[in-house]
Amino acid sequence: MTIIVTGGAGFIGSNFVFHMLDKYPDYRIVCLDKLTYAGNLSTLAPVMDNPNFRFVKADICDREAVNRLFEEEHPDIVVNFAAESHVDRSIEDPGIFLQTNILGTATLMDACRKYGITRYHQVSTDEVYGDLPLDRPDLFFTEETPIHTSSPYSSSKAGADLLVLAYHRTYGLPVTISRCSNNYGPYHFPEKLIPLMIANCLNDKPLPVYGEGLNVRDWLYVEDHCKAIDLIIHKGRVGEVYNGGGRDGRRNIDIGKLICKELGKPETLITHVTDRKGHDMRYAIDPTKIHNELGWLPETKFADGIKKTIAWYLENREWWETIISGEYQNYYEKMYGNR
Ligand code: NAD
Ligand code: TYD
Q1: What is the mean pLDDT of residues 160-167?
Q2: Alpha helices, DSSP H only, in 134-187?
Q3: Which of 140, 298, 325, 332 has the fewest beta carbons under 10 Å from its own?
Q4: In the chain, what are the domains?
Q5: Mean pLDDT of 291-317
Q6: Per residue in 267-280, pLDDT tens?
């Protein structure tokens, strides 16, 4: 079994590569990644010498490079994690989101059609459903919830999802889609809320909370997400969408307070800054379908996962300090300098 994992040098993709190599020692895992600012080859250092692993630096939009890889590897399965993934960056500059997230997906699926695969899996997001109101805690996203996006990021992911379903219906491509909630855990790029707050807290820097910080996210430990995708590509029904979430909604402000508490820092580090444009209020997933069909449920509770995550950032300072000492400085100044 050969699996091409695109975006495997990023946060969730790298965790998935580790999960698969560990669980299936006879599988060949080929990582295709452009190594954008979010891709980090050092993350994959522990598996670079594994004979069942190959890394290829390429853009999923580069048809020639993608086709060449399919000719060399004859993949059985393609799991597409490669994407521009940060909402704030999409608000600043949507173009590359449309390019990678939509056209890149089409390019990969064209190769799948041309060379034949048993499964194309699209890693999507709950953000395609838009948001839920704070005063309706009874509401959750199901697979039937209409697509209703808010940001250029979520719109580009929704566009890709529609294309994936169209390739299934029109060309019979054997596809599946997973729409998971916010992930957290090791190797999370420190531009996202949780790792940014951990890094800032450790450096005694302000923890920027957008607006009042009442927005709710349904946090899912990354390992649980990897297990969900593993189940879907092996046992999921072709043409289906599966939602996955932690059923553990938290307000951003409470995440900030919890991180301060865990690291023994004062809550006065929390600083309210200008809100994100079009900021989604609440995400909450109903995982009934994946639970009933595939037996998946998240195993790590947020209270434990956040402790594990903080411990990882303490033990792996070099990984994130290298990131925040480079080009990230310019990003941080641009996004938070006058906020
Ligand atoms: P990430 O930004 O950490 O990593 C993205 C990876 O894709 C990087 O390694 C980057 O180099 C690579 N990449 C970007 N453009 C590429 C291109 N054109 N060609 C090849 N590689 C390219 O992202 P992540 O948080 O790991 O998210 C992975 C996927 O999961 C994305 O599709 C995202 O939409 C989805 N998702 C993320 C979350 C979350 O909470 N992070 C939740 C649900 C779904
Ligand atoms: P983020 O990690 O960017 O994920 P997403 O926007 O995809 O949900 O943000 C999570 C939440 O945290 C979101 O409501 C925006 C908020 N946020 C802050 O309050 N401050 C920050 O510095 C960042 C990056 C996010």
Answers
A1: 98
A2: 152-171
A3: 325
A4: 2-336 (3.40.50.720)
A5: 97
A6: 999 999 999 999 99
Q: Cβ(125) to ligand 2 under 6 A?
A: no
Beta-bridge mates of residue 250: 217
Half-sphere exposure of 152 (CA within 13 A, CB side): 18
Facing residues of 176 across strands?
121, 240
Query: Exactly one of 153, 187, 221, 283 is catalytic; which is it?
Result: 153
127 is catalytic: yes
Is 9 close to ligand 1, i.e. is its CB under 6 Å away? yes
φ/ψ region of 7 (left if φ > 0, alpha if ψ in -120 to 50, else beta) reads left
Among the bound ligands, name the one nearest to the CA of residue 90. 2
Whether 37 sits among the annotated catalytic residues: the reply is no
Looking at ligand 2, which residue's alpha carbon is closest to its atom 22?
208
The residue to mutate among 81, 183, 328, having the most atoms of ligand 1 within 8 angstroms of its beta carbon, is 81
**293 included as an active-site residue:** no
What is the tens place of the pLDDT at every residue in 117-143? Answer: 999 999 999 999 999 999 999 999 999
Query: pTM for the whole thing?
Result: 0.98
Nearest of 14, 12, 7, 3 to residue 60 by alpha carbon: 7
